[in-house]
Amino acid sequence: MNSISSKRIKNHPFKMSPIVAGVILSLGVIVSGCQDPKAVTAKSVTAAESTTNTEQVVAVNYAALAQEIAKKYIITDGHIDVPYRLEDEFENVADHTEHGDFDFPRAVAGGLDAPFMSIYIPARLEKTGGSKALADKLITLVEDIVKAAPDKFALAHSTSDVKNNFAKGIISLPMGMENGSPIEGDLANLKHFYDRGIRYITLTHSKANHISDSSYDEARPAGGLTDFGKTLVAEMNNIGVMVDVSHISDDAFYDVMAVTKVPVIASHSSARHFTPGFERNMSDDMIKLLAKNGGVIQINFGSSFISQKAIEYGKLRKKAIKAFVTANNLEKNSVEIQVFKDEYKVNNPYPYSTLDEVIAHFDHVIKLVGIDYVGIGSDYDGVGDSLPTNLKDVASYPNLIEGFLKRGYSEQDIAKILSGNVMRVWQAAEVYAAQH
């Protein structure tokens, strides 16, 4: 077990009660084929009752082990949209918050240790200007969170920082930039944002920019990466900023793979195998090439990334809203439209994905390329009210771990998913940059 400071134990209370200890001991006896001495006198118990009791023992044991694993290992999450959420409506995330998916108490409950704070930049700023200014403002916001609660949060500019903060029982707040628009065509800005703590850049977002085409944008002016984008990827390698291929078009992904000298990440993407035609997720061929390069795909929890059913629901809802607006000649953002949206959801309940469906994406990647190339990229605070059952906020990571345990994943495999794989890629970026 990793060494855990007394402070971390205080922040992450886990006491092995006699009942839980007994349950774990009982499970060990059952698995080994031996009888529990205390159970020998229970000859009058029926076979059905015995089976039921055994199932209950197994269920309780998985939950207990999941909690222990969540506290034993570093848990990273590649993409949490806290900064932009707080820019829109500020709350003190050092305490319990009324809104959102992330705050300190819930992070502690879930065992979360290194959530990458997403410095999200809306695509519209590529044309209107202001990308760099907003990025700097959001980075300062993250720094202010740390300054206001240094006993709870710390910045993390390296893998060593994450490990050191973990040993102290403090949650790391590494940062990644979602949308490379703030680079504004100037490589000096790459150095500027590296110095401010940015450790990955998602090259674009929902629209093509001066770096890359977007998977969401029908316009593909560059046919992949722009010439500047190719230069930027090489310089990101040299300086130690991970390249994030989430959001970019398929052609841009293959351009990245042709240029990069180090492993890359998909900070919050899922498997296209389950959502055919949804380019925002990664195809099997892309996942194979990502793995061949040593990279990691971090699974997005949003239901529309997980199931085709949720995607189809979204299409039908959008069509219904458009028809309602047209029929009633309404202005954008009118009260009537919001009322219609609310009523639509009541009459047509959203098909939330399940925990099992999320784990199926992990399973698919692992069966395809192995355990070393997958991680967590929940997109908490970024996908609105579309999160799966049992994965509603950052307190939910033990539920995910329990699901892995029930599917037969070893503790060592789970540790790789929780942080080992991403830390390996991040460290590879650090080593390459040190040499160049």
TrEMBL record:
**EC category:** hydrolase
Report the CDD domains cross-referenced here. Answer: rDP_like (cd01301)
Gene3D superfamilies, A to Z: Metal-dependent hydrolases
List its EC numbers.
Answer: 3.4.13.19
Which InterPro entries has this protein been placed in?
Answer: Metal_Hydrolase, Pept_M19
- Asked whether the keyword Transmembrane helix is assigned, the reply is no
Question: Which is a GO BP term held by this UniProt record?
Answer: proteolysis
Name the source's superkingdom: Bacteria
* Single GO MF annotation: metallodipeptidase activity
Q: Does the keyword Plastid apply?
A: no
Q: Which keywords annotate this record?
A: Dipeptidase, Hydrolase, Protease
The name on file for this protein is Membrane dipeptidase
